[in-house]
Amino acid sequence: MSSDSDARRVAIACQGGGSHTAFTAGVLGRLLGDAALEREVDIVGFSGTSGGAVCALLAWYGREHPDESPDELLADYWSDLAAEGPLDRAANGAIRWASRLERAGVPLPDVSPYQSPAASWGRREFLTLLERHVDFAAIPELLDGNEPALLISAIDVLSGEFEIFREDDLSPEAILASAAIPFAFRAVEVNGSYYWDGLFSKNPPVKDFVTNRETPDPDEIWVIKINPERRDRVPKSADGIADRRNELSGNKSLSAEISFVEHVNEWIEAGYLPEKFTHTEIERIRFGRPDLHWRTKLEREPEFIESLYADGEAAAEAFLAER
């Protein structure tokens, strides 16, 4: 963290998108591995949803733990996630096979994650992988009041209310709650409440950086976006419609969050708010693979993951060059 009082305060928000967030990991690894950038900015927070929540956690933990580095931790996690073992490759192949059948119009049986052995296996695999890279029991010792905020989004299945898990109440289950896609995972219990994937809520948290009075208002929020905002033509194929529906669903809450911050900026400029409120610029680092359909968000082939990670590094490099 920069100690320069003139450093720009920056928060980084990571949109969800399953395997596509390997791109996010590449962006974060490149940004947080840049010594010059660390001298120029003061990172005051990370936020994330679903796969973006995992990336935000790894970035935060890698920066705060004295024996870790965020770039290495992010690269190691995504390398481990790639389907390299026989069982992993079989599971990944089954997902692709089912996806092709569905696209061909072959009806597939609906199986509840509460009845599916595959769902239980996926839950165990997710938690095991996460705990292999993050020592959650050590997190309380990392909290001294000077660490960046960490905001993880999920939604309460029963009340429909947004939930933000903070750095002082992190657990493997809280991260899983943000990533628990309803058709793939059973609802995740945390402290007596049940949660689903944060794509239904804040994807990712943005306005909380400016409404939370416990942390400094950022001068800039860098949003790492997975879903494109615009398309050139109306989709007409079943695949195209499904892709666009997924993109719009993933962008809906983010658009509202960014709109709130932009309105606050307008009120500040108009003199409607006290001086303690500060202007916050929104910068976007966009995923540039519009050719990928939404089902590839479940793809775990090593070559695919590596290409996304490399794309993220390149996007971060371009972002830094523009600055």
Tell me the strand percentage band. 5-15%
**N-end to C-end Cα span:** 19 Å
Overall mean pLDDT: 86
Helix and strand succession? Answer: EHHEHHHHHEEHEEHEHEH
Enter the CATH topology name. Answer: Cytosolic phospholipase A2 catalytic domain
Low-confidence sequence ranges: 89-109
Shape: globular
Number of domains: 1
What's the CATH first level?
A: Alpha Beta
The largest pleated sheet is described as: 8 strands, mixed
Q: How would you classify the quaternary structure?
A: single chain
Helix content: 40-55%
Helix vs. strand class = alpha/beta
Going by CATH, the architecture would be 3-Layer(aba) Sandwich
The strand count comes to 8
Spatial extent as radius of gyration: 19 Å
Count of separate DSSP helical elements: 11
Quickly list its features.
alpha/beta; single chain; 323 residues; Cytosolic phospholipase A2 catalytic domain; globular; 11 helices
